[in-house]
Amino acid sequence: MVIASTRDMSRKIFNSPTYVKPCVVDVAHKLLGKDNWVFLDGKEHVEYRKGLNGLFTRSALALYLPRMEEVYDAYFKAFVDKSAAKGFKPEPWMAEFRELMCAVSCRTFVGHYISDEAVKKIADDYYLITAALELVNFPIIIPYTKTWYGKKAADMVLDEFSKCAAKSKVRMAAGGEVTCIMDAWVKAQLDSARYREKVAKGIPVDESEKPASVLRDFTDYEIAQTIFTFLFASQDATSSACTWLFQLMADRPEILDKVREENLRVRNGDRNVPLSMELLDQMTYTRAVVKETLRYRPPVIMVPYEVKKDFPVTDSYTVPKGSMIVPSVWPATHDPNAYEDPDTFNPDRWITGDAEKQTKNWLVFGTGPHYCLGQTYAQLNLMALIGKASMFLDWEHFPTPQSEDIKVFATIFPQVGIRRPASMLPT
Predict the structure, then answer these.
(1) CA-to-CA distance for 387 and 385, rounded, in angstroms?
(2) Cβ count within 10 A of residue 36
(3) CA 10 – CA 15 distance, rounded (Å)
(4) Which of these, 21, 36, 235, lies nearest to 131 by C-alpha position?
(5) Are 18 and 367 within 8 A, CB to CB?
(6) Are strands 324-326 and 305-307 parallel, antiparallel or unpaired?
(7) Cα dihedral 290/304/138/151 (nearest 10)
(8) Of 37, 191, 209, 311, which is most buried by a Cβ count within 10 Å?
(9) Are strands 419-424 and 393-397 parallel, antiparallel or unpaired?
C-alpha cells in the first residue's frame, strides 16, 4: 500500500486512469453486485457516466428541491418533539443526522415510491453496509459476521429500489412528471427508446429530438443497482458533513446568525418561502459556510485505488501492479500555501479571500474521470439544510474533551458530538 502525502501526488493518482482504477474491499462486489457500473473502467465507465450526467444538471436539481424540503420539515419537527419529550437534555444526535440524510437521499433518488417505514429501515441498517466495507474484514460472506449482516442490508435496499423502479416505469410511461432522480433516468430511457424506434423504422428525426445520451433499456434491478451506488456515495459523506455543520454552527453562533440573516433576507423575511435554485444562488455566505465545512472537515479523507500496471509515480519509485495506492484529501484542503491559517474555520476566505482560486486543492469530491457526479447536488443539499435549520431551529452544543477529535467510520465524524435542537424559533 502506498499513501500519497501531498496534493500534487494525490492529483496525479486521481488523473491517471491508465495506471489506476478505484478499488474497494473484495466483499463490495458481493454487496453492490459484481456487474455494478462503479466497477467499470476506461471507455465503458466513461460511456455509462455520460448517461447519468443529465440527472445532476441545474434544471434537474430544481425538480428535486420539493422532495428535499419536505424531508427537512418533517425531521426538524421530529427533532424538536424528541428533544422536548426528553426535557431538552443534552444527548448524542449523530444517529438522527444519519437518518435525516438517508431520508433526504431516498426521497431525492426514488421519491415517494418508497414508504416512510422502508426509509427508516434503510437508515437504521446502513451502518451494517458501512461496517461490512471496512478495510480489515472477512472477504467472504460468513453467517453472523459484519459482511453477512451487510449483505442482508444491501439486498434489502436493492429489493426496495427495484420495486421503486417498476413503479417509476409505469408512472413515467403514462406521462407522469419527473419528481426524483429515478424518474429522470427512466424518462431518459423512454425518450431514448422512442428515438431508437424512429431511427429503426426510417422515420425522419429532427436533431432536437435526439437525446443528449441515447440510452439502452435498463432492468428494474440494474436501475436499483445504480441508484444504490448514489446512496453508497452520499450516505456516509453527507451524514459526516451534516454532523460537522451542526456542531460548527453551534460553536460559532455569530456565523450561524449570519446564515440565518441571509436566509431570511433572500426570502424578504418570510421563512416559509419554498426553496428554489434562484434562492440558493443568492446565498453567498451560506455557500461559503458549506464550502469551508467541507474544506475544514472533508468527509472522505482517502480514496483507495488499485494499480493496474506498474505506475512510475516519481522519477525514483514505481508502484508495482496489484498494489493499493491511496490519494489523500486532507493535505490538500489543509495546505497553508493555499489556505491561510488552514486549521481555522473561516467562511470569509471563500468571499473576500482567494480560496475559490485554489482549484487544485479542492479535492473534496475527487478529480479526474471518477470525480463525484453529485458534487453540486451535495453542496446545494447542505446549503438548503443548514439554511432552513437556521430559520426554524435553535440548538446548543455541549463540548467534551473529545468533541474536536476525529472518528473515522468510512468518513469522519466528531469523536463525541452532543447537541440538541432546543426549540423551534418563534413564528
Answers:
(1) 5
(2) 17
(3) 9
(4) 235
(5) no
(6) antiparallel
(7) 50
(8) 311
(9) antiparallel
Between CA 1 and CA 20 the distance in angstroms is 13
Please report the sign of the dihedral spanned by the C-alpha atoms of residue 78, residue 390, residue 111, residue 101. negative
pLDDT score, position 279: 97
SS3 of residue 393 by DSSP: strand
Task: Determine the Cα–Cα distance for residues 256 and 262; give it in Å rounded to an integer.
Answer: 10
**Phi, psi values for residue 291, rounded to 5°:** -65, -40
pTM: 0.92
pLDDT digits (tens, 9 = 90+) for 184-222: 999 999 999 999 999 899 888 888 788 888 999 999 999
Sign of the torsion formed by the C-alpha atoms of 118, 120, 122 and 128: negative
The strand pairing partners of 315, in sequence order, are none
- φ and ψ at residue 133, rounded to 5 degrees: -100, 10
Q: Are 320 and 38 in contact (CB under 8 A)?
A: no
- 419 Rama sector, left if φ>0, alpha if ψ -120 to 50, beta otherwise: beta
* Separation CA 275–CA 267 (nearest Å): 9
Residue with cell 446502513: 126
- Contacts for 265 with CB less than 8 Å, ≥ 6 apart: none
Q: Which three cell numbers stand for residue 103?
A: 431520508
Contact by Cβ (8 Å): 123, 102: yes
Question: Beta 324-326 vs 2-3: how paired, if at all?
Answer: parallel
- Tens digit of each residue's pLDDT (9 = 90 or more) over 80-123: 999 999 999 988 888 899 999 999 999 999 999 999 999 999 99
Lowest mean per-residue pLDDT among 90-94, 168-172, 262-266: 90-94
Chain center to CA of 83: 27
Write the single-letter amino acid at 293: T
Terminal Cα distance for the chain, rounded = 56
